[in-house]
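Q: What does the assembled structure look like for these inputs?
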Amino acid sequence: MKLTLTEEQEMLKKTARDFLAEKFPKTFVKQMEENETGYSRELWQEIAELGWMGLAFPEKYGGGDMSFLDLAVLLEEMGRACLPGPFFSTVVLGGLPILDHSSEEQKQEYLPKLIRGEKIFTLALTEPGYQNYDASSVTVEATPDDGNYIVTGTKLFVPDAHIADYLLCVARTKPKNGITIFLANAKNPRINYTVLKTIAGDKLCEVVFDQMPVPKANILGQLNQGWGAVQKIIERAAVGKCCEMVGNIQRVLEMTVDYAKERKQFDRPIGSFQIIQHHCADMATDVDGARFSIYQAAWMLSEGLPCTKEVAIAKAWAGEASQRVLALAHQIHGAIGVTIEHDLHFHTRRAKAAELAFGDADFYREAVAREMGL
Amino acid sequence: MDFSFTEEQNKFRQEVRNFLEEEIKKGYWEPACDAWVQGFDPGFTKRVAERGWIGLTWPKEYGGQERSHIDRLILTEEMLRYGTPAACHWFGDRQVGGAILSFGSDELKKEFLPRIVKGEAYFGLGMSEPGAGSDLASLQTRAVEDGDYYVINGQKTWASCAFFAHYFDVYARTDPEAPQHRGISEFIVDAQSPGLSRIPMTDITGTEAWNDIFFDNVRVHKRYLIGEKNRGFYQVLHQLDYERSGMERLMGNYPLFEAIIQFAKENKLSQEPVIRNKLAQLQIEFEVGRLLIYRVALVMEEGRAPNWESAMSKAYSTAFEQKLANAAMEVLGPYGQLVSDSKLAPIRGLAVHSYLGSKGYSLQAGTSEILKNVLAIRGLGLPSS
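A:
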């Protein structure tokens, strides 16, 4: 057992932190929130040149041959920086599922472009209505028509769909649980996008497929057998999101402790008051609890071990712990923390968005209950 | 990072489980909550000692096994899972032996460590006083030099294991003129010393697990001073880091956890969404606490005394134990209030007993408030008030 990073991972972490701090100041993050595309093409290319898109992909596709655990370190730093843009969509929701579930031919075709930063990917999974991530809730339909499938229906909360080149689209190809993943050209004119206005200013889209044709050759994995792959995708997305979350709340803890040391009232730093100290202690406990449970899940995923329970524990804990951390951070920061000039709101808004993504605490508590045999 | 155990560690865990299951099968004892601190069973301690499981991490020179702190955590985790009556050796193994190792003379090490390892020397603690709880540095028990001896007068309270301990680890003031924390020394006091008397205290569960200890001119030879004279307060801080470090802070009432899950399953309560939610949340919090405690063992494995790390895990974990007891009461509804020997009492009355007993968990070995001070000041660098 070992709970520390390797020397290489520490280096990656430091490089990432420095790069992100330099290139993605909060002024820029704000601009990206207000900007329709939500990312900068030049910086995207720079990230690709650093090898980050390809980090966890095999060398033969142009990747860095590193592990999901290494990627987890990077995602943590991205969460810390409140990084805008389609990295998570492209790598975690697009690339890794292609690596896991597609044919060699498809990998050869898509992964090198993804790794070079030429193409943006995302996942169209969630749909209108109550979200419980089970196969029966998928209503977007794909019906065979010659060499194509015709896809019809609406997907919701699809990150970065408006700028994506390819969509992994989860659709029903058979009543009951016949689910198939299609790799669709996102620029198809039979797709309508609306960028939704969200708390985090991230670009979650409504995606309407109006009889969109997708060639049969673009099925990712097995026809009608896609739900198993979808579950794996959700599991990994949840862990990836958790990594961003721990980066986020680690930063919030540091900001808050620094502020408590500097801010003076009654002629002394507020951090010398016991109540503030205890708030900070509670925050640190929540952050460390998140860190270990999240890295446990990331490590298990990385090692290819079954980890349904550990993923559920990590996401359930991270979702609620991050809300507690942010609540205390705001309380300690006082009024300055609720001004738009202060950086805290970037973290607050992203923590809530992350909590809601890929299953909230209630969803994963139920998963834990099942794992307990209840 | 690596969250796995080695093959040897897995084998060791299995070995411990096999031993404990065999013990239960033979009817030697029944799993119980709080048995690590209240379960007096010299035979059990002797059998554990025969396996070399006391002083597991200590140098071979003193009878230890020089095994890792992870091994020791595996051992104690299993002991707690099975609710073993381990109180005879728990304190010597967990902290007093370590204090002797860190600060004691060679003579003391040779005299006590092998006997702790053999399960022959039981220790209790004499730290708190009626006027010195969280403010331990204000303790008033006096030790005055008299030739080769110290003469101790005063009162200790909440002394654990007092009715069966052979020795007490006692902190007394040796320099009343010095600033409070620079005038305290640490002694090993024979429980049979003339002038030492013990009076049991009854806690809110009705258990007599703790004692008041009165010292009336108790003479202790100078060789039983641990470490340097007047350095006792620094030594106790060090020892408390270990006292707080372990799995007993998370699993003190673990038999209740298993029992309530089993109860919910057997009575179909586990199909109720509210109850599923409650029990799953406990499981989540338990697993998080377990990781916080493994981190502490890894700190020790690096050769560092765990400080804010064990403050964090202890404050977190005792809050979990209290939530568990409360949640178990809620799951049982009105039946939860039935004590163990009542008609209709479910799960052997474990819940109600633990509910009451758990109130003390966040007070022992540093209140959660003190622990959060430690974490904030030592861990986060906030200014002391």
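Chain A touches chain B at residues 1-5, 69, 257, 260-261, 268-269, 271-274, 276-278, 280-282, 284-285, 288-289, 292-293, 295-296, 299-300, 303, 310, 312-313, 316-317, 362, 365-366, 368-369, 372-374 (CB under 8 Å).
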